[in-house]
Every structure is written in C-alpha cells, then in structure tokens.
Specification:
Blueprint lengths: L5 H18 L7 H13 L10 H6 L9 E3 L12 E6 L4 E6 L10 H16 L5 E6 L4 E3 L7 E2 L2 E2 L10 H10 L4 E5 L2 E3 L1 H8 L2 E5 L3 E3 L2 H4 L6 H10 L1 H10 L2 E3 H7 L4 E3 L4 H13 L3 H13 L3 H17 L2 H11 L14
Parallel strand pairs: 3-4, 4-8, 5-9, 8-10, 9-11, 10-13
Antiparallel strand pairs: 1-2, 2-3, 6-7, 11-12
This protein binds ligand LTTK3YTO.
The site of ligand LTTK3YTO has 24 residues, from helix 5, strand 9 and helix 7.
Length: 344
C-alpha cells in the first residue's frame, strides 16, 4: 500500500476530528465541552478544536491593537457636542458615541438625545463607518435613563418650555440604522438606559454591569420598544418580571436571560468590543445590512418591510436589468428586458 502524503494525513486528521465533534453532546460548542472535544480528539492521536479547520485558517484572528480615536468635536452645523463624546477610529470603520454625563450616571436630557441623534446620523451617512459603538463615560454607568430632575408634565424639559420624550426617536433611529450598533456596557444600564442597550444590535457587558427597569418605581414606563423588544429578547414571562418587580440583574444573569451577548472583565470591555467590531467589519457590509433589516422585519411590521424592501431596491439599482429601465427612459426608447432571465 502506498504511503500517505502529509496532506492526506492532515485531511484524515481533520475528518476524524470532525466525526469526534459530531459524536459529542449537542452543547459541545460551549467552552467546557469543547475542551472535552479536544480531549477526545487528542486521545485518538489528533489535535483539533472548533478553530482547527480551513474556515479558521483562511479567516484567522482579527488584530488586537487599540484603535487610535479621532474626536469629532461638533455636529454638522459646527455646534460643539457637550453631552456626548463622538469619536471615529483612524483608518478603521468604527465610530464610538459616549454619553458624557457621568456625574448623573449618564442620565440623558433632551439635549443629550438631540446630540446622540446628530452623531448617529453622521455615522450613518459616513461611508467610512461600518459599525457604531454606544457607551457611557466612566465605569459606573452606561446610562441611567431620563434625567428625573428634568421630568415635567409632558416629558423631559431642559432648555425649552415644553417636555420631550425624544429618546423614542433615538430608539427608532438605532433600530433602522443600516449598520450594526453595539452597546458597550459598564455599570448601570437602567430605566431608559436599559432600553437603549436593548435596541442596539449587540450588547457586550462588563462584569460590573447591572441591568433593570425602574419605571414603575419612578412613575414611568416605556410601552413601546422598551416592552416589545424586551419581550422578544427575554420572553414574555421574564419581561413581565423585569417590568412588574423592577429588580436589578447582574451581568451574568443578564447573559443567561439573553439580554447580552457576552460578559467580560471590566478591563477587557473595550478590547473585546473592538474585536467584535473587527470581526463584523471583515464580513460583507451588504450582507450585514440586509440581515439587520431581515432580523427586524417581522417584528417591525410595515416599517420592517420598508427597510428590507429598500435594501432590495438598492441592490436592484446596481443591476443591468434595473439600469435598462432607467436608460430607456432617459433615451426616450422602449425598455428591452427580453435578455434578462426569468429565474425559477
Ligand atoms: C443608577 C442608580 C441605581 C445608581 O445608583 P448609585 O448609588 O450608584 O448613584 P446615585 O444614585 O448616588 O447617583 C449619582 C448621582 O447621579 C444622579 N442620577 C442618577 N441617575 C439619575 C437619573 N436617572 N436622573 C437624574 N439624576 C440621576 C443622582 O441623583 C446622583 O446625583 P447627586 O447630585 O445626588 O450626586 C441610581 O442613580 C438610580 O436609581 N437612578 C435613577 C434610575 C431611574 O429611575 N431612571 C429613570 C427611569 S424612567 C426613564 O428613564 C425613561 C425615560 C424616557 O425618556 C422615557 C421615554 C418614554 C417612555 C418611557 C421613558 C422612561 O421610562
């Protein structure tokens, strides 16, 4: 029998590893059982893990260096930001928006929300931004919701004679923004701050993060996304528990409830978030864009279809078939769609 080449041997090793992985219980993707997968595989003379395959050899690890941040000091009208810090990474498509009211546990006032809306608009429009991080200044709070000192009869009032609930507009904006938004949470994410992290696409939490709704204790409630998205995330029973009892939950409890994607030590919070950004950024931006629309579509009803439908039109405009209609109109001729396939 001819001797096996090194390549054949590697292929065989991979196949054995793959079979061994399939023989393990379904939960083998967790870290403890993947180490048992490692054990089984190494005990039959091969080394393998979920990372030992061509997929990981091709795509590899993302870089781990800290980004260099450039401050965007003002909005499009040249007005300086006061309640937020808006930054973009140099030579990397990452934007970071930080609520900057640490003395009030990053509670927001209408002005804070207006600045957040302007920064998110800028990040949406900027083609050099592919993913946006939302966070709070310091380690004590991501955001503690609406500034209760400014509560008025019709919302929150700061520099105007009437109140606003403009955080609801911000929630819709984040939900519909065609780029991933990642909440990076240290400390309290409570009240309206908890809702902000829930409407983000992903949440990375530090071990010191604390989550909860306080509304029914302070005479408030969010009957919009704050209720419906929560119910989707944690299930209807747990959502009732969160709103009716107004308890606080640790980061690890929040992870078990499906409220957050991962929990990391506080000093790893930003590096881990950047890692997630970089992994997302290596993937197709159009795929990510359409997936965000698709993942929201059913829950968002007509507005969800609007997002997904808009993405379909956007892609169609880039095709020859789409251009034929436009060209024919501009050339005052009948369009000829005969050459385009009618796919099954
Ligand atoms: C977040 C806390 C649990 C932190 O407690 P801790 O003991 O660490 O800190 P202090 O309590 O001493 O706070 C330090 C300092 O910050 C001030 N502060 C903190 N949060 C707020 C706040 N939300 N508003 C105003 N001020 C705040 C605090 O007073 C201290 O100031 P000093 O001058 O005394 O130093 C704890 O702070 C806490 O429980 N905070 C309140 C959380 C809360 O109830 N948030 C409001 C929920 S309602 C809401 O957010 C909301 C907003 C909306 O815009 C809505 C819109 C539409 C529908 C619903 C909405 C909604 O529900």
């Amino acid at each position: 029998m001819s001797r096996m080449s090194e390549k054949d041997l590697n292929t065989l090793r991979r196949r054995v590893a793959s079979v061994a992985n399939h023989l393990l219980p379904a939960s083998s993707s967790s870290s403890s059982s993947s180490s048992s997968a490692q054990h089984v595989v190494s005990s039959i003379g091969c080394s393998s893990s979920i990372n030992d395959n061509n997929y990981h050899r091709v795509h590899g690890q993302v870089p781990t260096h800290e980004p260099l941040w450039r401050l965007i000091p003002s909005d499009e009208n040249g007005k300086d930001f006061t309640d937020i810090i808006y930054q973009k990474a140099v030579a990397e498509p990452i934007a970071k928006i930080t609520i900057n009211r640490p003395d009030r546990r990053n509670a927001f006032r209408p002005h804070t929300i207006k600045e957040l809306i302007r920064a998110f608009n800028d990040a949406r429009d900027d083609g050099s931004v592919g993913v946006i991080i939302l966070t709070g200044k310091g380690t004590k709070a991501f955001c503690s919701g609406g500034d209760q000192a400014l509560r008025s009869k019709d919302g929150y009032a700061d520099f105007e004679s009437f109140g606003r609930l403009n955080v609801l507009d911000l929630q819709v904006q984040i939900r519909r923004l065609p780029k991933p938004v990642i909440a990076m949470v240290a400390g309290y994410a409570v009240g309206g701050g908890h809702i902000l992290h829930m409407v983000c696409d992903l949440t990375i939490a530090a071990e010191n993060a604390i989550f909860g709704q306080t509304g029914p204790k302070v005479g408030s409630f969010d009957a919009g996304y704050g209720s419906s998205i929560m119910s989707r995330l944690v299930g209807p029973k747990k959502a009732r528990e969160m709103w009716f009892l107004t308890r606080f939950y640790t980061a690890s409890e929040a992870e078990k409830m499906g409220l957050v994607n991962t929990v990391v030590p506080l000093d790893k919070l930003e590096p881990e978030t950047i890692k997630w950004c970089r992994e997302i950024l290596r993937n197709s931006p159009t795929a990510i864009r359409v997936l965000k629309s698709a993942l929201n579509a059913v829950d968002d009803g007509h507005a969800g279809l609007q997002g997904l439908g808009g993405d379909a039109t956007l892609l169609f405009y880039g095709t020859e078939e789409g251009s034929e209609g436009k060209n024919a109109y501009n050339e005052r001729r009948r369009p000829d769609f005969s050459k385009f396939p009618r796919l099954p």
